[in-house]
Design goal:
single chain; mainly alpha
């Protein structure tokens, strides 16, 4: 039995392959532009978190305002174990992911008895509690003074320190995360999640174990956030509790809504839009309001969130998908006509 390449390389994968090729080629073009590379790296971190949150929100239909807590758990666990115990950053990352998953399991059991706004408030409260631990547990986290001296990651004896090297590391994780999410969505678990999202009563009547699937998605989204947090800690080599406060969870939520909750690529699109707009605002706003503080970002993204919810409730990924579906057939028809007339 031979491998049928047509089943592997079809129209649905051409776009993804083209995207990966562009993604891998970007640093080769902009290798000397550290600002651009660091911006793309930040998009990579947020893509990992947002993809996990997309699985939870878009497919399991559950809202979490506590993802920053898992992001922080991954960062502090990795920082503490590598600095105080000399553990390999890769092992510390796995420890952070396991701890985040266990915490999600413990929190998820009582939290998923709640629904909608009450569930969102419960996860918000969890995020506030964890942030308080980060701030007050000074022996472990360093408190508001922060955690210094986090070692960089090494791979095959090579210390990954430059933006060029870290870019590839982060985006490999991001692409693996998207691929894993895509496999979940297209599997039996994905269909069960969609049935839960559609109607929990109907899903329950069909024998779907609702609590089990919700918990699994909550734990997976926590692992995504913890891995991103661990990578972030080893990239910046310094962290403090303010990086993981409540507003960070809200920004993650905004990214998922902007990108679209019904598509695994929504997290990437939302993260890219959020980071690029944030950088643009930092340049434009001081020209008009010289003494403006960082609060203007909250106002801007709040307005953007309202606009997206009103005019594009399925997010940018859905709108982009519709445009591509309209443009590509027209372009192919034109190409065939030109070929017939020898143009």
């Amino acid at each position: 039995m031979g491998l049928d390449l047509n089943k592997v390389y079809n129209r649905s994968t051409k776009g993804s392959i083209l995207f990966v090729v562009i993604l891998l080629g970007l640093p080769l073009v902009f290798s000397t532009n550290n600002y651009l590379l660091s911006t793309l790296i930040m998009i990579g971190f947020y893509t990992i978190v947002s993809t996990g949150l997309t699985l939870l929100m878009g497919y399991a239909g559950q809202i979490s305002l506590g993802q920053a807590a898992f992001y922080g758990i991954g960062a502090y666990t990795s920082a503490y174990f590598t600095t105080h115990f000399g553990l390999s950053p890769w092992l510390a990352m796995m420890v952070g992911a396991v701890i985040a998953a266990m915490v999600a399991f413990i929190i998820g059991i009582p939290a998923f008895r709640l629904r909608e706004h009450y569930l969102a408030l419960a996860t918000l409260g969890f995020g506030v509690i964890v942030f308080t631990f980060f701030k007050e547990w000074k022996e472990i986290t360093g408190g508001l003074n922060g955690f210094f001296g986090i070692p960089p990651i090494s791979l095959f004896g090579i210390t990954i320190q430059t933006d060029f090297q870290f870019y590839y590391l982060v985006w490999i994780f991001a692409l693996i995360g998207i691929l894993f999410a895509r496999n979940i969505v297209q599997s039996r678990i994905g269909r069960a999640l969609l049935s839960i999202h559609g109607s929990e009563v109907a899903a329950n009547s069909l024998g779907v174990n609702i609590t089990k699937y919700k918990l699994q998605m909550f734990m997976i989204s926590a692992i995504y956030a913890a891995v991103a947090g661990s990578l972030y800690a080893h990239y910046v080599t310094f962290i403090n509790p303010q990086l993981f406060e409540m507003i960070t969870s809200i920004y993650f939520l905004i990214m998922v809504v902007i990108g679209g909750t019904g598509n695994v690529w929504g997290g990437l699109i939302g993260a890219a839009v959020y980071v690029c707009l944030g950088e643009l605002l930092k340049e434009i706003v001081p020209l008009f309001i010289p003494n403006a503080s960082g609060e203007f970002e909250i106002v801007f993204f709040g307005i953007l969130l309202v606009i997206i919810l009103i005019y594009m409730p399925n997010g940018l990924s859905h709108s982009i998908s519709k445009i591509v579906k309209r443009v590509l057939p027209a372009w192919r028809r034109k190409k065939r006509v030109n070929a017939c007339f020898g143009k």
